[in-house]
Amino acid sequence: MSRQRPGTPTLEEVAALAGVGRGTVSRVVNNAAGVRDSTRRAVQRAIAELGYVPNLAARSLAGHRADAVALVMTEPDWRLFGEPFFTEVVHAVGDALTDTPAQLLLTLVRSDTERRRFVEYARGGRVDGVLLMSVHAKDRLPDMLAEAGLPTVMLGRRSGEESVTYVDADNTGGARGAVRYLLDAGRSTIGAVTGPLDMYVAQCRLRGYREALESAGAAAGASLVVEASDFTEVSGHRAMTALLARHPELDAVLAASDTLAAGALNALRAAGRRVPQDVAVIGFDDFHPDRPTDPPLTTVRQPLQEIGRAMVRLLQEEMEESPVAWRHVILRTELVIRDSA
C-alpha cells in the first residue's frame, strides 16, 4: 500500500525519493523514451510510495501531455491581432511548432478578470506552456504564471530588470544604427515616432535614437519625439502630422514599427513632402505587409523566424525540466536599405 502524506506530493519529492532529477520523473510520468528500466522502476516505486498523482487529469489517465501551447496577447484591443507584426509572430511560432505534437492556441487577455481566468485555465492542465507577447510594463500576468509554476516565455520584456524568460531583438542597437545611417547620409533634423512608452520595446528604440544623436552632437530635443498611442498605421499618420506641425524643417524620421512608418508616409504625402528627397523614413520590423509601401521602406529587420524558434525552444526546455535560472536571449537586428531612405 502507498504511504499517505499530508498535502499533495510534488514532482520534486518524487525525484528526491527516487534519487533522480525532476526531468527524469517528468519523462517517466509522460511515458517518454530515454529512461533506463532500473531508473523507471525506481521512479515508479517512489510515485507509489508517496501516492503522487500528476497535476493534469489527462496525463494521469492517458499518460501524455496536453500537447497544447498558448500564445497570449495582452493588448486591450482585439483588432491589433490583425496587425502584420502579430500575424508574422503567429506564423513564426506556428512554423517552429510544426515538428512537435503541440497545438497552438491563440488567446487575448485584457483585464484582471481575464488574467485570473487564464491562469486557472492553464493550471487546469489544458496547456503545457505559455508564450506571451505585447506585454506592457505593469502587467502581472508573467509573474502570475511563474508563481503558478507554468512554463512561460515572453516575446520582449517589461523592463531592463525582467526576470521571466524572454526572447527579444536588439531594439536599442537597431534604432541606434538606423539613426547613424541617417546622420551619415547628411540628414540633420531627425524626428522619432515612438510606440506607447509603457512598453519596453518602445523605450529601447527611443533610447537608441537618442544615443545616436547625442554621440554625434546632433539635436535630440523632446519636441522631435512624438509618442503614438499604439503601433497602428492610423497612429503613425497622426504622430507624423503632429511632428511636421512642430518641425516643418524635418528631413528624416525613425518610426518604431513598419506600420507606424506606413502611416508616416501617408502623412508626408498628404503634406506634399517627397520621400526620400525631402524627408527620409526608416521603420522597424521588416515584415511583409498586405500592401507594399510607396516608396519601398527602409527598415530595421527583426529576425522573427529566429525569434519564434528561440521562444519555442526555450519553452520546450522549461516544460521538460525547470532550469535553475531564467534565460534571456537577445537577437541581432539588420538595417535593410530600400528607397524611403
UniProtKB/TrEMBL annotation:
<dbReference type="InterPro" id="IPR010982">
    <property type="entry name" value="Lambda_DNA-bd_dom_sf"/>
</dbReference>
<feature type="domain" description="HTH lacI-type">
    <location>
        <begin position="9"/>
        <end position="63"/>
    </location>
</feature>
<keyword id="KW-0805">Transcription regulation</keyword>
<keyword id="KW-0804">Transcription</keyword>
<dbReference type="Pfam" id="PF00356">
    <property type="entry name" value="LacI"/>
</dbReference>
<protein>
    <submittedName>
        <fullName>LacI family DNA-binding transcriptional regulator</fullName>
    </submittedName>
</protein>
<dbReference type="GO" id="GO:0003677">
    <property type="term" value="F:DNA binding"/>
</dbReference>
<dbReference type="InterPro" id="IPR046335">
    <property type="entry name" value="LacI/GalR-like_sensor"/>
</dbReference>
<dbReference type="Pfam" id="PF13377">
    <property type="entry name" value="Peripla_BP_3"/>
</dbReference>
<keyword id="KW-0238">DNA-binding</keyword>
<dbReference type="InterPro" id="IPR000843">
    <property type="entry name" value="HTH_LacI"/>
</dbReference>
<dbReference type="InterPro" id="IPR028082">
    <property type="entry name" value="Peripla_BP_I"/>
</dbReference>
